[in-house]
Specification:
This protein has helices at 182-188, 201-204, 219-225, 237-248, 252-263, 293-296, 298-313, 328-337, 343-358, and strands at 8-12, 20-24, 28-36, 40-50, 57-62, 65-71, 78-86, 89-97, 101-103, 107-120, 124-126, 270-271, 276-277, 282-283. The chain is α+β, with helices and mostly antiparallel strands and 366 residues long. The chain folds into 2 domains: 8-126, Jelly Rolls (Sandwich); 182-362, Lysozyme. Strands 1, 2, 4, 7, 9, 10 and 11 form a 7-stranded antiparallel beta sheet that branches.
């Protein structure tokens, strides 16, 4: 594959399929022309990411049409696949790194690409050969891979819209406060055409369902809070965040920041080896009954995850210290670690606070 000078380089790695990979360290696109001997039905990309304040985002296009748009949260080589329908003959493959971020002496987000291979009819795998110019170029060797995770099936989605100068924010309501209703919060949402994640469109316009309980909450907490969960709202990604934050009485920007860390605002994100789903990464093996709605409906994903946080914030978790009541940051860290005030929780809280300070969702490159 080829990449403009200064945007990346070929690097050695004995764990890569061909002993080398292409590191893309600046916003840019690697391209290659591949000639298919027969029709192809699947494209698989081998990639991993250098993580910094969120995962790198990879967008893959064939002949100018995007077929895969996914975050790359894994730090070891992982396969990402898309269903395609391509005829025999030459095709232009492009792999773009779209959300570069770096801070000197602190961290650097990069996209690392091992290989790209097509499943072609009657031929097994075909891997595009590197082009001669421009440099650097990367030679990729095909290697059989296990069933990939995550997998994104291409859908027709609207185009991203311009970044707003600011977004509406509400403050956290203290424990014991009367929480606004679905309808009240729907009326409070500031509607806008801005959508940094147009690929969320289908999930953003799929309403949720009711659920019997919030994992870990006491009977009293469940009786008060669980019946409020319904995922009954549609809109853009940020409109959904506004609605859910309002409904559960939490600071809107903290919810935005958590969504950056968990999924980079991509509802299609699948984590924890196929166990966690959606914008706020609800773990299906812990939160019984949430899957597949947690993956299919952005509104439900936000609704349930923030109901869980409110149960913690109100003191309805009897398995954490009583001091957890009213400790919003402690409850944010608990969502990640499952252990109150652990080192993992504190590290996670630090990442969220950094996102909150940086507000990357206001960046044109978000």
């Amino acid at each position: 594959m080829s990449l403009s000078s200064g945007a990346g380089a070929v690097t050695n790695d004995r764990n890569a399929s061909g002993g080398k990979f292409l590191m893309i360290w600046a916003k840019g696109t690697a391209t290659s022309t591949v000639t298919l001997p027969s029709s192809a039905t699947k494209l698989t990309i081998g990639a991993r990411g250098d993580q910094y304040l969120g995962a790198p985002e990879m967008r893959v296009s064939i002949d100018g049409t995007m077929v895969l748009d996914t975050t790359v949260p894994q730090t070891s080589w992982t396969s990402y696949s898309a269903t395609v329908s391509l005829s025999a003959g030459p095709h232009q493959l492009a792999i773009a790194f779209v959300n570069d971020l770096a801070k000197s002496g602190v961290g650097d987000r990069n996209l690392l690409v091992d290989y790209a291979e097509f499943a072609v009819t009657g031929q097994g795998q075909t891997t595009p050969s590197p082009t001669a110019t421009p440099s650097p170029t990367a030679t990729a060797t095909p290697s059989p891979t296990a069933t990939p995770s995550p997998t994104t099936t291409p859908t027709a989605t609207p185009s991203p819209t311009a970044t707003p100068g600011s977004l509406p924010t509400m403050a956290t309501l203290p424990p014991g406060s009367a929480l606004p209703s679905d309808a009240t919060c729907a009326a409070r949402v500031t509607r806008s055409s801005w959508e940094p994640r147009p690929q969320n469109y289908t999930a953003n316009h799929t309403t949720g369902t009711t659920i019997a309980k919030i994992d870990g909450a006491t009977a009293a907490g469940n009786s008060l809070l669980a019946p409020r969960i319904d995922g009954n709202f549609t809109g853009t990604t940020d409109e959904l965040i506004q609605w859910a934050a309002c409904k559960w009485g939490f600071n809107t920007d903290i919810v935005r920041a958590v969504a950056v860390q968990e999924s980079s605002w991509k509802q299609s994100t699948v984590g924890d080896n196929g166990q966690s789903f959606g914008l706020l990464q609800i773990k299906s093996t812990v939160h019984t009954g949430t899957y597949p709605t947690s993956q299919n409906s952005t509104a439900f994903n936000l609704d349930y995850a923030l109901a869980w946080r409110r149960a913690c914030f109100e003191g309805y978790f009897n398995w954490v210290p009583a001091s957890a009541k009213g400790d919003e940051w402690g409850c944010v860290g608990l969502w990640f670690s499952g252990s109150w005030n652990s080192s993992g929780a504190q590290n996670y809280i630090g990442l969220i606070k950094q996102h909150l300070a940086d507000k990357p969702w206001l960046s044109p490159n978000f």
